[in-house]
Design brief:
This protein is α/β, with parallel strands linked by helices. It has four domains: about 80 residues, Ubiquitin-like (UB roll), CATH 3.10.20.740; about 120 residues, no CATH class; about 170 residues, 3-Layer(bba) Sandwich (FAD/NAD(P)-binding domain); about 90 residues, 2-Layer Sandwich (Alpha-Beta Plaits), CATH 3.30.70.20. It has 21 helices and 14 strands. A five-stranded mixed β-sheet has the order 2-1-5-3-4, sandwiched between helices. Strands 8-7-6-9-10 form a five-stranded parallel β-sheet, with helices on both faces. β1 and β2 form a beta hairpin. α4 runs antiparallel to α5. The structure holds iron/sulfur cluster (3 copies). One iron/sulfur cluster (SF4) binds next to α18. The site of one iron/sulfur cluster (SF4) has 14 residues, from α19.
């Protein structure tokens, strides 16, 4: 047996064992992309680098998947310089990566709704799934479907071709369909945290914040000076034009928000300390674990009278965390921005809820994390055509019974489905299971650090049910090794030279013929979205082979 230490822990393993395996014995998680148990070692991605010091004192970085242990070896796998080397390996892989993890419309939407996912559900008429996707990111979709100026559509890729997908109208149609049901969708909440939050102001920011705080398991009391919640959404001089936002729609949507278990106390105005009949920040601090103020735009004197720190546009808060200098007191929406869009207020409410949730659970308010995404930017016309060709003939899933019982007539459902079918699905099919993205996020890799001129976006083998995207292939060799190990008559091979090496099928045959029954395994072993199912089925739902 050979004894060595990894991150200061001693371990004994048989000779010939790799550092990766020895680390796994200690429960140390070393990332790998091109390694898979049972397949020949590729040592090409260099994401599994560790630092070793040998008996003679020599130090070097080595790929742990292909380096055997040696007596008295000291291995570092969790130090800052190892993390920096892994980050560089990931950034080099990403330097030549052609794909968007998240669609451009999702970045353009202030609340970052998963728009392509919603559109896929609408296209296949799964409105009950679509509303779940929508309400993951938007507490007030029927309201925003009427008053939002649609920044997502300005970011839509199809806008430069034949007009943006009608994202906002489709969201409204689904939200209205949901609210028309007796049992509208009410999301489940996390287990009770035992913490209590006061949200003052029941406009779009307060309603959104209360909704997300409640979903995180906190007990929420929502205060407002009016007897009915809604704030500026009821003000005809602000966002509450009844011709655009009918009161019955607003009332029903607010009922759906409160249904997650929010206590509403109307007629409770935020007042300076010692003024009777209202609520004061200080007394709320005594009663609740956190207080969020979102009572809209006020002048500086009002904020000062209420005992809140003021800045040039409203309450002074730390950017990102929404916290004021008063411990446990936060502010968001027009209270910190002056006048702003309703959708910005909803986004603030959601982000402030995230910061307050961290504060309550970890003791420190944290900003909403910007999701990691490779972004390819503007596409050339032929690249749009490439996406387009896939979207138009995407297979339609079967009708779901849920829509049969809705109040929309079939023509409207069909029109919504056709409109949603215009989406080019710019997000990556591999998003949930992509190991390249997961590790890039873990090590804080910057996808643009070594970016040069990008390759052209191409989709290959579009006629088969498995797609190959050469721009996302890191040439790890796993899919080739799987087909070689199974001794398939055709299988996969590498084609091209140097930087242009890619995976291909011999003799110009189809991918379907090449992979045979191994298609699922090949998609599952692919550490990126280079191999994916054309219908969007993700490798996460497949039997995952054991990986390093
Ligand atoms: S393959 Fe991974 S890193 Fe590349 S676009 Fe898809 S999710 Fe992002
Ligand atoms: S085509 Fe679809 S996924 Fe792409 S930007 Fe437009 S709505 Fe988003
Ligand atoms: S397509 Fe094959 S070689 Fe390319 S990343 Fe996926 S598994 Fe690796």
């Amino acid at each position: 047996m050979i004894r060595l230490t990894i991150d200061g822990q001693s371990v004994e393993v048989p000779p010939g064992t790799t550092i990766l395996k020895a680390a796994q014995k200690l429960g140390i998680d070393i990332p790998t992309l091109c390694y898979m148990d049972g397949l020949p070692c590729q040592t090409s991605c260099l994401v599994c680098l560790v630092k070793v010091r040998e008996r003679n004192g020599r130090e070097r970085f080595v790929p742990s998947c292909g380096t055997p242990v040696a007596p008295d070896m000291e291995v570092e796998s969790e130090t800052a310089d190892v993390a920096a080397m892994r980050r560089t390996s990931l950034e080099l892989l990403l330097s030549d990566h052609v794909g968007d993890c998240l669609a451009p419309c999702q970045f353009a939407c202030p609340v970052h709704m998963n728009i392509p996912d919603m559109l896929r559900h609408i296209q296949s008429r799964q409105f009950d799934e679509a509303i779940v996707t929508i309400k993951e990111d938007i507490a007030l979709p029927a309201v925003l479907g009427r008053v939002c100026p649609k920044p997502c559509e300005k970011g839509c890729r199809r806008g430069s071709a034949d007009g943006a997908v009608a994202v906002c109208d489709l969201k409204r149609i689904v939200a209205d369909w949901d609210l028309a049901r007796e049992d509208f969708y009410v999301p489940t909440c996390e287990a009770a945290s035992g913490r209590r939050v006061a949200v003052v102001g029941a406009g779009p920011t307060g309603l959104s914040a209360a909704y997300y705080l409640r979903r995180r398991g906190h007990a929420v009391t929502l205060f407002d000076r009016q007897v009915q919640p809604g704030g500026r959404l009821r003000d005809p001089n602000s966002s509450g034009n009844p011709a655009i936002l009918p009161p019955e729609v607003l009332n029903r949507e607010i009922t759906a928000v409160l249904a997650v278990g929010i206590e509403f106390r109307g007629g409770a105005r935020l007042e300076p300390p010692n003024v009777r009949g209202g609520v004061a920040v200080d007394s709320l601090r005594g009663e609740f674990d956190a207080v969020l103020v979102c009572i809209g735009e006020q002048n500086q004197r009002t904020w000062e009278a209420l005992g809140l720190p003021s800045g040039p546009r409203g309450v002074a808060v730390e950017r990102g965390t929404f916290r004021t200098v008063i411990p446990g007191v936060f502010a968001a929406g027009n209270a910190i921005r002056g006048r702003g869009l309703v959708v910005r207020g909803c986004a603030d409410g959601k982000e402030a809820a995230f910061a307050i949730d961290r504060f309550l659970k970890e003791g420190e308010a944290k900003p909403w994390p910007e999701p990691f995404s490779v972004r390819i930017g503007k596409l050339a016309a032929e690249e749009l055509d490439e996406l387009h060709s896939l979207s138009l003939d995407a297979p339609r899933e079967e009708l779901r019974a849920s829509v049969d019982s809705c109040d929309l007539d079939t023509a409207e459902v069909n029109a919504a489905s056709v409109q949603a079918g215009r989406c080019l699905h710019c997000d990556c099919r591999a998003l949930p299971g992509c190991r390249l993205r997961r590790y890039a996020e873990r090590y804080g890799a910057d996808p643009n650090r070594y970016k040069g001129e990008r390759a052209v976006l191409r989709l290959q083998y579009k006629e088969s049910h498995v797609l190959y995207e050469p721009g996302k292939c890191i040439v790890c060799g796993l899919c080739v090794a799987v087909t070689e190990a199974a001794r398939l008559p055709l299988g996969l091979t590498f084609v091209g030279r140097g930087f242009d090496v890619r995976v291909g099928v011999p003799f110009q045959r189809s991918l379907e013929e090449a992979l045979g029954k191994l298609a699922e395994q090949c998609v599952a072993v692919c550490p990126t979205g280079a191999l994916s199912f054309r219908d969007g089925k993700t490798p996460a739902s497949l039997p995952i082979l054991r990986s390093g």
